[in-house]
From TrEMBL:
Family: Belongs to the sulfatase family.
Region (Disordered): 457-479
InterPro entries from the UniProt entry: Alkaline_phosphatase_core_sf, ARSB, Sulfatase_CS, Sulfatase_N
Signal sequence, renumbered to the chain: 1-34
Protein name per its UniProtKB record: Arylsulfatase
Amino acid sequence: MNMFGMTFGGRTAFWSLAGAVALTACLTPPSARAEEPKKPNIVVILADDMGWGDVGWHGSQIATPNLDRLAASGARLEQFYVQPVCSPTRAAFMTGRYPMRHGLQVGVVRPWAQYGLPLDERTLPQALKEAGYETAIAGKWHLGHFRPEYLPTRRGFDHQYGHYNGALDYNTHVRDDGHDWHRDDKENHDKGYSTHLLAGEAVRVIAEHDVARPLFLYVPFNGVHAPHQVPDRYKEPYSTLAEPRRTYAGMLAAVDEAVGQIAGAIAKKGIGDHTLIVFSSDNGGPNPGRVTSNGPLRGAKATLFEGGVRVAAFANWPGRIKPGSVVNAPLHIVDLYPTFLKLAGASTDQSLPLDGRDAWSAIVEGKASPHDAILLNATQTNGAIRVGDWKLIVGRPGGPGEAEADGAPAPAVPADAGRVLLFNLAEDPYEKRDLAASQPAKVAELRARYDALAAQAVPPRAAPKPPGFRSPRVWGQSD
């Protein structure tokens, strides 16, 4: 049975999604129900820095009941790939194009960066607006804010709520001495824990939505990214865990509660059977073992091993996606763009070609991946590609070093650029056996595929902190 939770006074109540939908349908006049659009509502929920092993269906010691129920009543995407770090994943999702085409393949967009997602890119909310959708974001943007035209309401969102940067304080909403909380891209001073505020906004958007139009709602939580902060009551069930994992567990519990509130709002609105919900993390968990868990997957955030680029994900749409299904076809977050556009009846004709592929038949019919190759990244120092069951890592698998992650340019000729690792993920899903020496023909095959794509990469953008830089009073606006 699908069950979802809403929190009242610190206590969580659960009820049946199917029952709530049925009750709402009974109370809704037939004329009103007939006005529901044929195009599905699309709700995308993105966690930040969540480990692959930190959900119940992967054996987590952290309780994630709402995520688990949505995953169980839909399709678990067990080989779902993203980028090694945050902004690149968001750029890929927004455009259906690999971030090496945006110059966003290395590091994240820092608060002081004088760039963002290029303005010539057609974004997902822009495309869905063309198809008649109401579009809203409640959460972290992280794709540039240095000029007004880079802000979410200029990139296709009718409504915006939340923050532009990563790693802000969850309670004060300050990053590097600058205020970073906004509504419709204007300064906002709502008080509260950020996960609670974002959940409340998402619930409001759903409750006030006019069902005569389809809705695209994007909820990219800053949870469970550092700084690790959460109200004490969320940590109480995890007293046996050592810090900082205990606080991280509480943060994830708060995110899971928020997901339950969003699902509950969908049920209360009576649109559950016409709403596609997709959940993912933006990258693998950092510091596995100490903070997060990536289960048996090798590596962590900022690496090209599976623990850095393969994440817990699911898709849920009652009546359209078979409950309890498991999708083992390799998919990438770039695939959501063309998949959503096709479901929405929106055009995929655009001046910049897509890397994403329509993945709907893989999700609902169990068909093979629409890709013959998935580029996991391509930078000046490293990269990776998956072709069928084979995966090649070129250069340093550990990803960018700290200097590069902060936006410094990568060395022109890295010392280990010629190093390669080869894995057969069907036989060795945890990347324990490097087969490069014993499979030179396969290395050559994958290297040729990788080099052809890497040659199309634009130079990565960089944003070292300028000497003497002073944060503005409010990020995204001039003082």
